Amino acid sequence: MAGLKLSGIRKSFGKVEVIKGIDLDIEDGEFVVFVGPSGCGKSTLLRLIAGLEDITAGELQIDGKVVNQVEPKERGIAMVFQSYAIFPHMSVRENMGFGLTIRRENKAQIKERVDEAARMLQMEDLLDRRPDQLSGGQRQRVAIGRAVVRSPDVFLFDEPLSNLDAALRMNTRMEISELHKRLGTTMIYVTHDQVEAMTLADKIVVLKDGEVQQYGPPMDLYHYPANRFVAEFIGSPPMNFLTAAVEQQADGQVFASADSIGRVSLPEFNFVKPATMHLGLRPQYISLGEGPDSHHRFEATVGVTERLGSETLINLKAKDGTKVTAVLPEDVELQADQTVIFNFDVNKLRVFAI
Amino acid sequence: MSMHTMSLGQQSRLLGRYLLLMFIACIFIFPIVFMMMSSLKPDFQLLSDTASIRAFLPVGDISLDNYRAAFDRAPIGLFIFNSIFITATTLLLSLFLASVAAFSFVFIDWRGKSFVLAIVVATYILPFETVAVPLLLLVNKLPWLSSEGVTWGWLNSYQVQIIPWVVRALEIFLFVQYFKDLPKDLVEAARVDGASWFQIYYKIVMPLSGPVIATVAILKFLEMYNNQFIWPTMVVQEEGYRPIMVGLQYFFQLNTPWGEVMAYLTIITLPVLVFYLALQRAFIASIASTGVKG
Predict the structure, then answer these.
(1) Model-level ipTM above the cut of 0.85
(2) CATH entry, B68-290, from 3.40.50.620, 1.10.3720.10, 1.10.10.60, 3.30.70.1280
(3) Most B CBs within 10 Å: which of A43, A44, A47, A52, as the mutation test of the B interface?
């Protein structure tokens, strides 16, 4: 078991800097997810932690020790690869025991630990198979099993679910979550899927262009995104953005005026100076009708309706033509081109600099 | 597709294709058949038979006399032993050293490796003849540790026929190309799991490299067994270390005994056929998978 500390970590490939100074504290036992679009450096960051790439600048500590120059095998980590990286010429049992065999542990003990991990992952019947006799989900299990057997201080997962179909993905996601609960080991998990990030993480690191955009618990990121990028990336469907002029009245009240939704008060916003800004509003916070008196109302024209079963996505066009998405209950009935009144709680509005 | 569902046109196309393949196969097989049949015939019949189809048939005065005479003329067993020993030793050393070098070029990061690889591959364009004389001067001055202590100069020995041939650019290049196509994740997974570079080499990479090992083995075998003539002629004067191709010279004299030549060639061809048949499956698989032609 170990915590990690990243201080000013940088990584360049030739002249291209892909990790631009990252500071992170990961506590012992935490489940941390690195999330971001492709090319944001999340996998590279994981590989730096694993020791598969050299750190260009900065310091990486695992369990209080600087490990910049330490070989991967000495770092107390186990890694699950996107491709699973199962050795095709070994049986499942040999694959899972590989790390222990390499360390010349005694055979009885290897068998015991492989059996135990197999029991935990419910894959005892697979142990004598060859990798080419396994399905994608089973291979995934073997890869996780191989990591579990080594009882590492830190688990690293590099997009482990991206090659699975949707149903299996959800299952395995829950299993990984359970595994974390059971083992209590520090886990670092890379994904581009914000749903995986939200459901698995104790803390999420949102990355973009090699820099941390925000680091914190999932619901903090959801409710208080640090910038427009995080706001757009976390939450599905993505947050709506409306351009508005923000100004302060003589009585101190801050207001935003948008052509799309009119004039809104921003009770939670600390005013700086008049400026054009983006208002962020999650589709889930928009309701049909006039709503309570404290809510703000706006008129919009109904566009395409997408029924997802449990809820309905409505694409709206605000007065000035701005597109707005609303998530409404499953049974809502709206005609296309109909102009309707919607409302939302102004406290849910977020404000972002442009 | 079964024969029942084939149209007449498809059937005749298939027939045409088989006939063509048979014709090509014959072109390759006939010289070998000719060699084997001729080895059984006395010289005058052998030469007169070449004018007709009889050249490929065991007809006329058939005997093993040529084989007896060939064994009397040259120490064939010794030559074959020498060639097989030289070939096998070179082959094993070559497989090991070339694959280790390629492993380092592909999987380990070190400064200047692409430059070094470029130089190594570039040496492939040098024909052996251009380095033969400098190499001769070199091996003539090298030390060797034997039961008699340190001796100088490698002439008249096995090592002079083995060591210069162990690693050539082609083998390294073939391994490099194959290793590059192996999933890097496997190597990285093994590293994270605690394997040393050498453990990764022999526990992960080599067990997955069957096709390229077979390719290199066959190319090296052919190079060492079939094509060693100029160099042994230069560095070996004693009969005891001579390989088969130098042995062939025993038969080319004023009146070449063609029947004996054919008998000798038949004998020395057998190990090639055995070796090729043993590795045939792997060899074909490797041509299919690497796109490298032998």
Answers:
(1) no
(2) 1.10.3720.10
(3) A52
